[in-house]
Amino acid sequence: MKRTKVKAALSATQPKEDIQINGWVRTKREGKGFAFVEINDGSCLMNIQAVVDEGLPGWEDMPRVGTGAAVSIDGDLVESLGKGQKWEVRAKALRLIGEADQETYPLQKKRHSDEFLRSIAHLRPRTNKFGAMFRIRSEAAFAVHQFFRDQDYRYVHSPIITGSDCEGAGEMFRVTTHDPSLAGAQSYDQDFFGKEAALTVSGQLTAEIFATSLGDVYTFGPTFRAENSNTPRHAAEFWMIEPEMSFCDIHGNMDLAEQFLKSLVRHLRKHCAEDMELFAQWVDKTLTQTLDSIENDAFVRLPYTEAIEILLKNAKTKKGADRFEFPVEWGIDLQTEHERYLTEQHFKKPVIVYDYPKGIKAFYMRQNDDGKTVAAMDVLVPRVGEIIGGSQREERLDVLQARIRELGLPEEEYWWYLDLRRFGSVPHSGFGMGFERLLMLVTGVTNIRDVIPCPRTPRHLEF
RNA sequence: UCCCCAGUAGCUCAAUUGGCAGAGCGGGUGACUGUUAAUCACUAGGUUCGCGGUUCAAGUCCGUGCUGGGGAGCCA
Question: Which structural domains are found in chain A, ordered by start?
């Protein structure tokens, strides 16, 4: 008999004889002579209820059919006699596929804390919340590809292992085949690649290669940062999306970032409505409002200099106390408290801050004519903070070389990056978006460890 | 890495001034002819995170380590 997925069974328009449901038992309710078994197979949020009468094949296993057990049920899909569900399965036969000992199975049919579920990350996708999360994650990845494909962007596989220490986005994990337990110095030229190697911290430089050949491109892959960050917003391994567009300035870049976020939110609300609703109802009561704002409100475009003016003007609360712990002045990098004030309190919607002082931004960002700022931009959203960071890239060879020298960076390491400016250089722009931060934004989940299957953070490499 | 808070039954938590370690849920057993986090009855279940100290007496106070959470920095 061919298997029917729960999602298909529940969306039936008419009864159907002889179907097979395979899945895991969420809960069992027994009466005299019969039992209700609710089964979930991960295809959707809802369970399907099976009615199992005493005496049918497999009934002798019922005592061992408990929460967590894997079962296969043959039966007829019929309209439910009870309230609370339209369809149910009237079982004809039951098979216990995989038992789950009730004394030791950690998941109970009740709410568990996120912290506890994190300690059993191998079982947490079997809960409603994490099942919904990982279905949304899957759909979100698809939506990313669809968005770019619809606009004729090409998907570039940037390398995971890099020999370039000029990616310049943070501490790197070293990649080696050397045995650290061996004594004595082991030089890099005897290592696998014959030079120092590391896991990528950004696909941007590779994306620039392809932006200046295929035109509009994006990368979407794992990214690694060996920062000792202990926050709910950072992971050592995360997924990042990095579009890069030729013939595009900072304003086109901001336009794309805004369209991109709006499109993803719209897609997920349409295609994951049931799973999204779980988060709106149980995780974040303001989620609907937040998502409405992202979808419908124009994002604020705010030059850094004006952002500083707003912050200075509002440095005192109505009661006259200092609003900010860190004093505001032109030239500082915006603190988390400043970003949150702008997006959560002052504008109450997404804000794109751009044209930052060049002293606080990366060497490759395009210098503006004022001589003080660069064409960088950060997209700030309520609760998550910085979800996107990007810039127009410096395409002028002499200006880029001067900046590299000014900062004392090893110019020879950047030979191929400079070649892109040497031969047919064009204005181009791009940004990076943390995929997990997108998921936090659209679900209201406040800890990055709860939006990724197996979170990697300092001193945590379980699962 | 820095600052703050917490750690008690499988889970979520309570325990007065330092004075007999408890509840709900979950588990087990039984009852119940349509349940919906089923209900009802009975029942088992503890190195109070580890180590050291103060005290007649420590879940409670002190020191230290570990683990978890929050905030900051770094950023996506």
Answer: 6-105 (2.40.50.140), 124-450 (3.30.930.10)
